[in-house]
Design goal:
900 residues, mainly alpha, SH3 type barrels, Methane Monooxygenase Hydroxylase, Chain G, domain 1, 4-stranded antiparallel sheet, 9 strands
């Protein structure tokens, strides 16, 4: 079974041990003991990392033994294996997975990718299909691109290296545009029109790179880091130190400002590295050597940051060195001119723009090819996309504008409080001016109403007096006429027989009476007409005064509305200012609280570590005590057992001695013959007694040693415990002291903040009181002055206001005329663009019609060809049938002839 499994793995070649171990190695690995404390990996020049076992440790020095038997010693060991480059991802290893199911091969990306990676390297249809392109067109565009020579386009053959470079440039361009497209889409998705607060945040920055071989990529990354580091030094540190100064912290100001300016200017300024690199890319005969010579001539010995590299053994060749803030970096300029040009294949880009994948087409929709640049007839010439260098796209303008924008934003943020205060003060001044204006207009209105009432009363009184005089005159005339009429009547009655002369006199008097009556009626009519004219004039003046009052009411309402709006704005600004102040104070307190919490967490972690150390020491002490007890028990058990054995031996000897004495008493006759035996037994007894004494002495010595050892171990452990307790007490007291110091610092910070807030509040109250007093005095003086000026300048102000309204109307008319002209010009431009679009649409429609006609002709040709193919197939079938019949006839005839 195992041999079959190992045989199946042989197809993977040298990759087999890294995909699956042999059956024997797996069984050995399962049965082999493993100790995580001693098993490590160490660096090895050939195998990168090999398994090892720790043999000994001496301080920071560790000695290990590898599986091959070699021994290494060093100051540290690597405990995690960072995988080296394994011989799996190559054509042979990938080919072994072809045609196999997932469960038939070891786990690897090849077993689940359906061989897409392997086939993608050899089959262009896959890549073309993913981009919704025709594979033949893609291969033709890569291998035989169209290049503009003069005013014509020719097809150019490419070498393998040129095709590789073109594919790499296209891949980088697609990745860059796709990344920017994704960022734009994410920002659009997260965008909201609701109110929000803007802030500056840095998510991540590129790491500084110093390798054995540093090229143009490392220079771009290090240049970015240099700019960001300068920005942080110049702004963030300065702002932090200003915060220290505001909070009253004793601090020596450190200026980090322009420490990195020399290196940045060396790279980005005119006649810098990027500038010389672009200049060399413009000349077709430029080489790496000419670029190096220009750099050295321009900067070597003139700039401290540009140095000549020191030759080092075993490292790649370096052409110049730059002194960055993170260290001195040696750069190799080989291939910089080609990397900086990084041209795109215009033919492939044209295919991308016509791709059926909308996303890919939109990525290159704004790309201006050489053909498009050549077709443009208007405007100044622009540098074609085929000559847009990496350094030009990467660095100077964008980074400079970005840093300028950040500087401007920081300046705006630092001046935000002052601007808010100025806006608040300006709003208060405007509100005061509007209030003064409203008061002035109200007073003017009341005075105008008083003047109108006085004038109206005077006119009415004059009219009434005139009417009274007229009525009195008419009454007087009427009474005179009545008296004359009565006198005439009386005289007429008295002279009853009046003569004709008297009759004539009466007629004459009657005529005079009629004339007087007519004059009276005419005077009455004239008086009524005068009264009507006066009433009409009075009504007109009342209407005009009513209109003026209405206008004044509207102006007053408008001013009241503006006043309420200004009050609302003032309230909003006040609330915003208070919110900003509260937020700033809250942020400061939160920062201090967070710092205190961080310190407390650190102290707590340290205390927990000390507690863990104490627990570890307690465990070690208990373990040592248990070991001592075990050894003591063992020694006591051994001593008791040995004593019991000796006691038993002693008893046996005593019994033997007693038996011997009895035997001697019983057989006195045999005393002489047994003298030698007795002597021997006595010698044995003496030897045994000596052994017993030596054993007792050894036991006593062991007991003494045991007591000394127990005493020493107890003293040692007690001393260790005392030291540990002393250290713990010291650590605890230190922690308590630090916590008390932090609490005092927090209380001091709170008291400082409270004092600052109280001081600011008192200052603000004093300023508000003084400002209110000044406003009252100013209002009173301005009111008196306005009252004096209104009486003198009312007519002039009305005339000036009319003139100003006329001028404003003229200005508004001019602005309207300008807007109208702009709208007309914009409409004309839109009409021109519409005409251009219509012409393009007509051209495209004509091309579509031609393509449709070509497609129809092709379809007709295909149908004709299919019909001809069908006819040919039928003829072939007919011929085949005829041949078959003739062959069968001939065969039958041959068989008949043979039979006959």
């Amino acid at each position: 079974m195992s041999s079959g499994s190992d045989a199946e793995m042989a197809i993977f070649g040298e990759a087999a041990p890294y995909l699956r171990k042999s059956e024997k190695e797996r069984i050995e690995a399962q049965n082999k003991p493993f100790d995580a404390k001693t098993s490590v990996f160490v660096a090895e020049p050939k195998e990168s990392y090999v398994k090892s076992v720790i043999q000994s440790k001496d301080g920071g020095k560790v000695t290990v033994k590898t599986e091959s038997g070699a021994t290494y010693s060093g100051l540290f060991c690597v405990t995690v294996n960072p995988y080296k480059w394994l011989p799996v991802d190559h054509p042979a290893g990938g080919g072994a997975y072809r045609g196999k199911k997932r469960q038939e091969a070891p786990p690897h990306i090849f077993s689940i990718s359906d061989n897409a990676y392997q086939f993608m390297l050899t089959v262009a249809d896959k890549a073309a299909y993913l981009q919704n392109l025709n594979s033949a067109d893609l291969l033709k565009a890569l291998c035989y691109p169209r290049v503009k020579v003069g005013n014509e386009y020719v097809t150019k053959g490419q070498t393998v290296q040129q095709v590789y470079n073109a594919v790499g440039a296209l891949a980088k361009a697609v990745y860059e545009k796709m990344f920017l497209w994704m960022v734009t889409r994410i920002n659009q998705q997260l965008d909201t029109k609701q109110p929000r607060q803007y802030f500056i945040g840095v998510l991540d920055i590129a790491g500084f790179e110093i390798f054995d071989f540093n090229s143009l990529e490392q220079l771009c990354i290090n240049f970015t880091n240099e700019k960001l580091q300068q920005f942080f030094n110049h702004h963030m540190f300065v702002l932090e130190q200003e915060e220290y100064k505001k909070e009253g912290i004793e601090w020596t100001f450190i200026d980090f400002g322009m420490d990195l300016a020399a290196c940045i200017e060396l790279i980005e300024k005119p006649l810098g590295i990027f500038s010389i690199l672009e200049e060399e890319c413009m000349f077709p005969k430029a080489t790496d050597t000419s670029f190096k010579n220009k750099l050295c001539d321009q900067h070597l010995g003139k700039s401290n940051n540009f140095q000549k590299p020191k030759p080092a053994k075993g490292k790649a060749e370096a052409h110049f060195s730059l002194v960055h803030y993170a260290g001195t970096v040696d750069y190799n300029i080989t291939g910089w001119l080609d990397k900086n040009k990084d041209p795109l294949n215009d033919t492939v880009v044209g295919l991308y723009q016509k791709s059926g994948m909308k996303t890919l087409a939109s990525l290159f929709s704004t790309y201006a090819s050489a053909e498009a640049d050549g077709g443009a007839k208007k405007g100044a010439k622009k540098k074609g996309s085929s000559f847009q260098t990496v350094s030009a796209l990467f660095r100077v303008k964008n980074l400079t504008e970005e840093m300028a924008g950040l500087d401007e934003t920081i300046a705006k943020l630092t001046k935000e409080k002052k601007a808010l205060q100025e806006a608040h003060q300006q709003t208060l001044d405007d509100l005061q001016a509007e209030e003064d204006k409203v008061n002035t207009l109200s007073k003017a209105k009341s005075k105008l109403e008083q003047q109108v009432d006085d004038a109206r009363i005077e006119e009415l009184e004059e009219e009434i007096e005139a009417e009274r005089a007229s009525r009195a005159k008419a009454e007087k005339q009427r009474s005179d006429l009545s008296r004359e009429l009565e006198e005439i009547s009386e005289s007429r009655e008295e002279a009853g027989g009046a003569t004709s002369a008297q009759v004539e006199l009466n007629k004459k008097r009657e005529t005079e009476f009629q004339k007087l009556r007519r004059d009276l009626e005419e005077a009455t009519l004239q008086h009524e007409a005068t009264s009507a004219a006066l009433r009409k004039k009075h009504a007109d003046s009342m209407a005009e005064l009513g209109e003026q009052i209405d206008n004044l009411q509207r102006v007053k309402q408008k001013l009241e509305k503006e006043k309420s709006e200004l009050k609302m704005e003032i309230d909003d600004l006040s609330s915003n200012a208070e919110a900003i102040a509260k937020a700033k104070a809250k942020n400061a307190l939160a920062h201090a609280l967070q710092s205190s919490r961080h310190d407390c967490d650190l102290l707590r972690e340290q205390y927990e570590e000390e507690q863990e150390g104490k627990a570890e020491l307690q465990r070690a002490l208990s373990k040592a005590n248990s070991e001592v007890a075990q050894w003591r028990t063992k020694y006591e058990t051994d001593a008791i057992q040995r004593t019991e054995e000796l006691e038993e031996a002693k008893k046996k000897l005593a019994q033997r001695l007693q038996a011997a004495e009895e035997h001697v008493e019983a057989v006195n006759a045999k005393c002489a013959s047994l003298e030698k035996t007795k002597q021997r037994l006595q010698n044995e007894v003496e030897d045994l007694m000596l052994d017993v004494e030596r054993t007792n002495a050894a036991c006593a010595a062991l007991d003494k040693k045991q007591r000394n050892f127990d005493k020493a171990s107890l003293e040692h452990e007690e001393g260790k415990i005392l030291r540990i307790q002393l250290e713990l007490n010291q650590v605890k007291s230190e922690i308590d002291r630090k916590i008390a110091e932090k609490d005092e610092e927090i209380d001091q910070l709170k008291r400082n903040h409270i004092r600052v807030v109280e001081t600011m509040q008192s200052t603000l109250d004093a300023e508000i009181r003084s400002r209110n007093d000044a406003l009252r005095v100013k209002k009173k003086m301005e009111g008196d002055l306005n009252e004096m000026e209104i009486q003198l300048n009312h007519a002039n102000r009305l005339a000036a206001e009319s003139l100003r309204n006329y001028r404003n109307t003229q200005g508004i008319l001019k602005d309207t005329q300008l807007h109208l002209d702009d709208a007309l010009r914009g409409q004309e431009d839109l009409k021109e663009q519409l005409a251009i679009v219509e012409r393009r649409a007509n051209l495209l429609q004509a091309e579509i019609e031609e393509l449709r006609a070509t497609l129809e002709q092709t379809e007709r040709s295909r149908k004709i060809a299919e019909q001809e193919l069908l006819d040919a197939s039928e003829r072939v079938q007919l011929l085949h049938t005829q041949v078959s019949k003739r062959w069968h006839t001939a065969k039958w005839s041959l068989e008949v002839s043979m039979y006959i």
